[in-house]
Amino acid sequence: TYQYTAAGYAAVWATENTREALWDAMNRKEVYATSGTRLTVRLFGGWDFNAEDAKSRDLADIGYAKGVPMGGDLTHPTNGAKAPSFLVAAMKDPQSGNLDRIQIVKGWLDAKGKQHEKVYDVVWSGDRKIDAKGKLPAVGNTVDLKTATYSNDIGAAQLAIGWTDPDFKAEERAFYYARVLEIPTPRWNTYDSARLNMPPLTKVPATIQERAWSSPIWYAPN
After folding, report:
1. CB distance 125 to 139 below 8 Å
2. Residues 6+ apart with CB under 8 A from 61
3. Are strands 158-164 and 115-124 parallel, antiparallel or unpaired?
4. Which of 43, 50, 73, 121 is deepest in the core (most CB within 10 A)?
5. Which is nearest to 159 in space by CA: 40, 32, 12?
6. CB burial readout 46-73, b (16+ within 10 A) else e
7. How far apart are alpha carbons 1 and 106 in whole angstroms?
8. How do the pLDDT tens digits run along the chain, 222 residues long?
9. How many CA atoms lie within 13 Å of 15's alpha carbon, on the beta-carbon side?
10. Strand partners, 211
11. What is the spatial distance between Cα 28 and Cα 22, in angstroms, rounded to a whole number?
């Protein structure tokens, strides 16, 4: 069991804290999960989200007005759009690590019915840049393994962006979901080692990047 991390959480975007509202939210799949952290995630898909939308204090209102939330279905393009756009935002857990990045994970079927998947780093903390190989450099690591502590000197408290799929093909079925990563923090075995003054386990990672995953937004051609 030492190979596993702590239990995760499921989160629901409901209009109110009632049995009926929670059921409705789960039925429409407006939910997300985390590895154990309590960060918040919003994801909306549509055809005309832009960078300015991500700067608004009314991000959720804009998301519902211009698109569909996580768990929803995208219909045919509107306003002459050639590709779907997504409004994604996340806020850190006040008692956990800052945010490293937000990714959009896309899966699709090509003309031959073959499955594909691609991960896009869409917004991140700091002044890092995508390298020539298309990779985003690591955020860094502030974990002190001896004391099982870390600092939030790196990362961001919140991240948001309006992003458009650069590889969209209207004839291909696809899904998109958001994945949010925190900066590295001590894993449970590192906390145990520090508290019990024991050598750290060597067969498992000493740190972990807690994360969250949203329900997908689905696209199907007409």
Report:
1. yes
2. none
3. unpaired
4. 43
5. 40
6. bbbbeeebbeeeebeebbeebbbbbbbe
7. 31
8. 667 787 799 999 999 999 999 999 999 999 999 999 999 999 999 999 999 999 999 999 999 999 999 999 998 787 778 899 999 999 999 999 999 999 999 999 998 999 999 999 999 999 999 999 999 999 999 999 999 999 999 999 999 999 999 999 999 999 999 999 999 999 999 999 999 999 888 889 999 999 999 999 999 987
9. 7
10. 181
11. 10
CA distance 200 to 47: 50
Half-sphere exposure of residue 8: CA atoms within 13 angstroms, side-chain side = 12
Sequence-ordered list of residues with C-beta below 8 angstroms from that of 100, at least 6 positions apart, any chain: 124, 125, 139, 155, 181, 182, 183, 209
**Rounded CA separation 107/203 (Å):** 32
**pTM higher than 0.85, yes or no?**
yes
Burial (CB count <10 Å: 0-12, 13-18, 19+), residue 212? buried
- Residue-wise DSSP of the chain: -TTS----EEEE--SSSSHHHHHHHHHTT-EEEESS---EEEEEEES---GGGGG-TTHHHHHHHHEEETT-EE-S--TT-SS-EEEEEEE--TTSPPEEEEEEEEEEE-TT--EEEEEEEEEESTT----TTS-PPP-----BTTTTB---SSSBSEEEEEEE-TT--TTS-EEEEEEEEEPPEE-HHHHHHHHHT-PPPSSS-SEE--EEEEPPEEE---
